[in-house]
Amino acid sequence: MLAVAPTQAQVGASDEGTFEVLVGGRAAGTEQFQLQQSGGGSGSQIISSGRVQLVVPTGTVDLATRLQTSGFQAIPVSYEVSVGGTSPRRMVCTIGGGRVTASIATPSGEQMREFIASSDAIVLDDGIAHHYYFLARRIRDGRIPIIIPRENRQVMATVRDAGFDQVTVDGAQVPLYHLEVQPDDGDLRHVWVDDLGRVIRVEVPARAYVAMRTELPR
Question: What's the predicted TM-score (pTM) here?
């Protein structure tokens, strides 16, 4: 059974900003994002869009994303991601009815993929820090299904409330909720959010990955 996050983390979903991304202790680039809610209750809708541009030892990362959710629990209904670089592709996913149906377009053609997804799953695409907002507003301690679109699969993850930490952001120390997210077959992630569930910092120690907001949200 999911442990519901605090009520204040489920209202006021507007947010935008920039994460500075470090890989291996070195500045690799940025993730810029915007998240906007319209409507309320069962009729609410959130649209989040982002752009990740990194230079890492294995090459460049260039991602543009758009996620749409519906209802009070922010259930995902569609997801789009465009991948730039030497192997460009575009994925458009429709989510619902217990399935994710994806159309994937590449220079060599188009293909369709489909996989099973739980009705209460959230989208956490790999390397997208702002997506953890949707986790933080849903759960702070317990189990949750996670859709990883570009891997065409769903996995279960355990979320643990690790208490409060003092984190330095833009020269100021602020108290933040610390969540540990452990996918059943993936790397441990540390996520710090404010009292509205807005993501401030994400770390994946096994990948030497850190994403930190360049300034506190207003």
Answer: 0.92
Range of the domain at 63: 3-156
- What are the structure tokens assigned to 94, written together? 């429709």
Write the CB contacts of 131 (distance below 8 Å, at least 6 apart in sequence): 48, 67, 122, 123, 124, 125
Q: Classify residue 167: in a domain, yes or no.
A: no
- For residue 25, the tally of other CB atoms under 10 A from its CB is 8
Task: For 111-157, write each residue's pLDDT tens digit.
Answer: 999 999 999 999 999 999 999 999 999 999 999 999 999 999 999 99
Q: How many domains does the chain have?
A: 1
- Asked if the structure places residue 58 within a domain, the reply is yes
